[in-house]
Write a structure and sequence with these properties.
Oligomer: single chain
Order of helices and strands: HHEEEEEEEE
Largest sheet: 6 strands, antiparallel
Number of domains: 1
Structural class: alpha+beta
Radius of gyration: 21 Å
Strand order of the largest sheet: 1-2-3-4-7-8
Number of helices: 2
Helix content: 25-40%
Number of strands: 8
Strand content: 35-45%
């Protein structure tokens, strides 16, 4: 009987660890989906031919060239809404966005993250004269978009989980 009780207690101690692992896995999956959604939103708008290049300047080149600082803006405005996914952006501070994935039919959300977006140079390589040469692509032609997703947005930033993502966007001709 004692052996049975000890065995059951040992197995029960694994439940919190398993639940924590599941929560982390779900969070990382939703963060990756969030990053993909937001980065593709930027790509589609940057390459929008109807903008005649205005989006490249007004959306891409206004992004900061370093990761936005620790403070977060308070001036959030809805940027886009598709189904149960709402994208917010800071009205006055470029480089900040929030994504909220709500649970249909409720006031609750499934995932709520703050995103920091910044740009940096895209570097290409050329094989010239028998060796590889680094070639920086001008920002007028290509942008490296970096994205940090931190969640949940309802707790202080230093206690959040975070993940980094990057995509390179080349301006259409």
């Amino acid at each position: 009987m004692v052996v049975l009780v000890v065995g059951v207690l040992a197995v029960m101690r694994l439940f919190p660890v398993g639940l924590d692992s599941e929560r982390d896995a779900v969070g990382h999956t939703l963060a990756a989906q969030t990053a993909e959604s937001l980065l593709q939103f930027y790509v589609l708008n940057l390459k929008n031919p109807a903008g005649n290049g205005a989006n490249w300047t007004g959306l891409g080149l206004v992004l900061p060239t370093a990761k936005p600082g620790a403070g977060e803006p308070a001036d959030w405005a809805v940027w886009d809404k598709v189904g149960n996914l709402t994208l917010w952006r800071s009205a006055g501070t470029p480089g900040f966005a929030r994504i909220e994935q709500s649970i249909p039919g409720t006031d609750a959300n499934d995932f709520f993250a703050t995103c920091r977006v910044w740009r940096d140079a895209v570097v290409s390589w050329r094989f010239e004269n028998g060796h590889w040469t680094e070639y920086p692509v001008p920002p007028a032609d290509a942008l490296g978009l970096n994205l940090e997703v931190s969640w949940p947005a309802t707790i202080p930033r230093e206690r959040r989980r975070a993940a980094l993502y990057r995509i390179e966007v080349f301006r259409p001709e």
